[in-house]
Amino acid sequence: MSSSNLPSKSQGSEGIIPIWRDERALTAAAQVISAILMLGGLIWVGVNLLEAAELRGLSLGFDFINEPSGFPISESVIPYDDSYPFGTAFLVGLLNTLKVSIIGIFLATILGTIVGLARLSTNWIVNKIALVYIEIHRNIPLLVLLFVWYFAIFNKLPPTKEGLELPGPIYLNQRGLFLSWPRLTETGEGFAISLLVGLILAIIAWITLRRLRERSGRSTYFAGVSFAIILVSIVLGLALSAWQPLWIDVPVFEGFNFTGGLRLTPEFAALLVGLAMYTAAFIAEVVRAGIQAVDLGQMEAAKAVGLKPMQTLGLVIIPQAMRIIIPPLISQFLNLTKNTSLALAIGYADLFFVGRTMINQAGRAVPIFGMIMVTYLIISLIMSFVMNAYNRKIQISEKSV
Amino acid sequence: MRKILLPLAGLMILAVLLAACGSPSGVETVEVVVTEIVEVEVPTEGEVQVVNAPGYGEILARVQERGRVVCAGRTDLLGFGYLDADGGNIGFDIDLCRAVAAAVLGDPDAIEIVPVTAAERGPVIQTGEVDLLSRNVTWTSSRDAQWGNFTITMFYDGQGYMVRGDSGIESQDDMDGASVCVTSGTTTEKNLAADFRERGLDFEAVIFEDTASVYNAFFEGRCDVTTSDRSQLAAVQAGADNPDDYVILPMIISKEPLTPVVPHGDDQWFDIVKLVMYALINAENPAYGPITQATVDDVLASENIKGRTVLGAEGDWGYSAVGLDADALANALRAVGNYGEVYNRYMGPDGIAFTLPRGLNIHWTEGGLIYAPPIK
After folding, report:
1. If you average pLDDT over each of B91-105, B108-122, B344-358, which comes out highest?
2. What kind of fold does domain B58-154+259-359 have according to CATH?
3. Residue of chain A minimizing CA distance to B123
4. How high is the ipTM of this complex?
């Protein structure tokens, strides 16, 4: 558009086009008018809300945040009971949502990739099993799936006293999965810090030494150095914590339930499994689309060069397929995060469920819904920002370097 | 030059709009004092001057125009709000709604029942989306301030616990560490948490938004105890596969006065609903007849002044001030009967839902709490 010999748009063959026919002026006017209309609409909605709230005596303030909530929450990552303020209750809901989302994304991606690859398999049985899995989970609404997982499967496990006992000890029954879990002793904090610092240093060492090797060509033993750093940090940590950094918390049956150990409630498990399997079906199709989009010639060329099928997949196909896979994958991750709001149907205390309870107990529908929406928006924006950055970094550009 | 045409045009239009909206500069504001001479009518003795706040009369006008009363209720609670074999709405709370419809529109079936969950009932009456909330709602001070106007308690209930008969639980101390199933967004969960915290006991809360899931989980064994209003527990126990396996413990841990609610801001509708409820309660008083569904015409023909006043045959029980007909309360009584009849229809010895002793819900003339101001 810079230098050309074509007549510029505002000069017709007879001279300058009048403004009421000038395409660019018209589009500009249309944009300005629609912006004004939209802004006007939003302002009208906002003013209406304020007027209606005042008429009905509805308070729109946020002063309830510090009042004691008065209601219990079924599970929480941080300490909480009914004497804590509403703000803490909201935080508990948020942490529960993040817990399910992160673990769910992780599991869904792994499962989805496996199913997607299975769907491309030349083995007829594997292919058809993957097909059945995908079609079932794509065509049944998620809410129905969650109900099936919770009410028909996890709730029907044997009651506490007749549950399954595995070596560990690990207990599986209607009230959840109870695992023996290592916990830090009082002196264990030194161990944890040392391990964390060691891990960070090891990662930095791995990245820098690997880059150094790529540039200089010399071998820098980056793997060995990284592992050595981790080993040193472990030994240092053990020494700092008087050689007793961890103790094993074993679940013990007391009264009605098991106490101690790590507990996965059936609500959490049903939500996690249901969500992961549902999203994995969609991710499988995305992966399949990405792999099929890679030119068949690539596969033939890799074979001709002598690469084994696994190497072809890992070194040639997948890096090219990532370009196509990652953007829809981001959508699937965001879907999973937002779908966690269905937790309220099966009793898992996620952000939306806690928010709804807060509305009922505090009586402030509009501010709390605003908080819920803004929080989901922030989570989604952060997630897509991170994933888009990752996408830009690893995608292969077809322009020559 | 052309690249800045668009933003320039936009800025210009925006600037013109802002200038038009704001006050033009250079114009001074001058305070003008205007003295108006107003003629005020001094009311002669006996006349009452009525000044009404904004919102007065809105709901009645809306109901009459619409031709039906919209009530928020339940369709899943035996005894209070549920469905009969043909899918019609029946129940104690539903009958209160029908009484209001009969009084206001003359037709007890001119109602629309909107099922709402416990979490929705507050917002739905706060916004005036429904005309009456007759849904098992506990009257509390904060709800009165936030949700709407609470009329008069029609069912004095209390919160209790239900456990399995073979669990050996007899008091809260036996429940330390137990799992308790409860509905979310209710006073029930708050009272449960407060009760356990005061006694220094622990419990695992299993909370669902949908009441059916709560009792489903309890019957499946997911939790050891469930808690709710004792009337609701009785209804749930009656609907279980094996009611005798479950026990409702005798202790009451909180007051649950169940009260119909109307939206804030319309005193006329508030008065109308209260008057209908007073009529249902007073009709059971022997001094008023008593007036039953069958004996409305008999009382009209009798010499009982109190009864005839309620039925509109003598004096003004307040109908002219609230814009109703004189026989509005008579219509309500013809539609559903008096309080005792409504109660016994669903929860009496021959009740179609279950049998629950009236307890505190006995009429005040026999020592209970069901009491209303005189209608005259």
Report:
1. B91-105
2. D-Maltodextrin-Binding Protein; domain 2 (3.40.190)
3. A365
4. 0.75
In chain A, the number of structural domains is 2
The Cα A376–Cα A361 span in angstroms is 21
- The reply to whether residue B193 touches residue A81, judged by beta carbons under 8 angstroms, is yes
**CB-based contact B193 A29, cutoff 8 Å:** no
Distance from CA of A95 to the nearest CA of B (A): 17
- What is the DSSP-derived secondary structure letter of residue A68? B
Are B193 and A71 in contact (CB < 8 Å)? yes
Decide if A70 and B146 are in contact by the 8 Å CB cutoff. no
**CATH code for the domain in which residue A114 is found:** 1.10.3720.10
pLDDT, tens digit, for every residue of B167-189? 888 888 888 889 999 998 888 89
Residue B210, CA distances (Å) to A345, B154, B342, B360 in order: 7, 24, 27, 29
Q: Are residues A218 and A281 in the same domain?
A: no
* B222:A175 CB<8 A: yes
For an interface test with A, which of B13, B180, B209 has the most A Cβ atoms less than 10 Å from its Cβ?
B209
- Nearest CB partner across the interface for A363, out of B122, B190, B264: B122
User: How many contacts does A have with B, using Cβ atoms within 8 A?
Assistant: 133
* pLDDT confidence bin for B38, thresholds 50/70/90: low
pLDDT above 80 for B119: no
If you classify domain B158-256 with CATH, what class do you get? alpha beta
Contact between B220 and A363 using a beta-carbon 8 Å cutoff = no
State which residue of chain B sits closest to A356, comparing Cα positions: B119
B15's tokens:
């600037």
Rounded to an integer, the average pLDDT of A265-269 is: 92
> Which one-letter DSSP state was computed for residue B111?
E
User: DSSP state, A345?
Assistant: G
Pairwise CA distance, residues A16 & B315, whole Å: 87
| Residue A206 forms contact with B (CB below 8 Å) | no
Inter-chain CB proximity B177 and A83 less than 8 Å:
no
Q: In chain B, which ranges are E strands?
A: 69-73, 76-77, 81-83, 89-90, 111-115, 132-133, 149-150, 155-164, 178-183, 203-208, 225-229, 246-248, 254-258, 261-262
Q: Where are the domains of chain B?
A: 58-154+259-359, 158-256
Q: A56 at the B interface (CB within 8 A)?
A: yes
- Quick one: pLDDT band at residue A155, thresholds 50, 70, 90? confident
